[in-house]
Amino acid sequence: MAGSAADFAGERPSRGRGVLEGAFALLDALKEAEEAGLTALSAGAGLPKATAYRLLEQLAELGAVEHRGCRYRMGPRMFRLGLGWQPHPRLRAAANTPIRKLAAATDASVAICVVREGRTLAAFGVPGIVDHLAPVRPGASWPWTTAAGKLLVAFAPPEAPLSHLPATWTREASAIREKQVCLDREELIPGVCCAAAPVTTPHGDIVGAVCAMAAPSHDITKLANAVQRAGRMVSAGLRQP
User: Fold this and answer.
1) Is there a contact between 128 and 122 (Cβ–Cβ < 8 Å)?
2) I need a surface site. Which of 23, 55, 96, 170 has the fewest CB within 10 A?
3) Which parts of the chain sit beneath pLDDT 50?
4) Total domain count for the chain?
5) Does residue 101 share a domain with residue 214?
C-alpha cells in the first residue's frame, strides 16, 4: 500500500491560526514569490502586516529568511533543513546508484517521486534530456495525474482524499496495479513522455516511485522496462541492513 491517507491529503485540518502556522504561511508565500516585500507576503499568507513583519524578522534572525532592503527571500537554513527530508530513511542511499544508471542508459530525466498534499513531488533526481520542460530538482511538483502520481494513487488507501478523479479511474487504477507500471504519453506536459514504477519496503509498503521522463521519440516500452528494473533495484537496496 502506498503511504497513508494523510500523505495524499490536499488540505490540512483547521486548528486555528497559531504562531507556527503563520510563520509557515509566510514561508509558503515566499516560496511562491521567490522574493517579495512585506505587503505581498502578508497578503499571500493572509496575515496582518504587523504580524507578518514580526514573524519575518524572527525568521530572519533564525536564518530561515533573508532580509535585503525592503524585500525578503528564503534563507540558507531552510535550504539545509529541506535537504534532510526523504520519504523513507534509507531511500536516498538505496536510490542513488540505480537512478543514476537509469539516467545514463536512457538520457531520461529520472526522479524518485511521492504524492504529498494532493500533488506529485520530486524528492530527488537526475536531470536529463527533457529537464527544460519538467525539472526534477528536489521540491519540484506537478498535479497528481503524472505517471508517478497515478501509480501511487492507484495503490493508495481507498479513503485517500483526492478530488477530480476521472470517471474511468477505477478501471485505469486496476490496470496500473496489475502491470505495476504507469505510462504517460504527453498527457500532462507536451513533449514529455513518462514511465513510473513502484519502490517497496521489505514489508510491501510503497514509499515512492521511480519516474523517468523522456522525449516522445523514445521507445516508451523499453523505458518502462528499464524503470521497472530500477524500481526493483531501489527496493532491494531498502532490504539491506
Assistant:
1) no
2) 170
3) 10-16
4) 2
5) yes
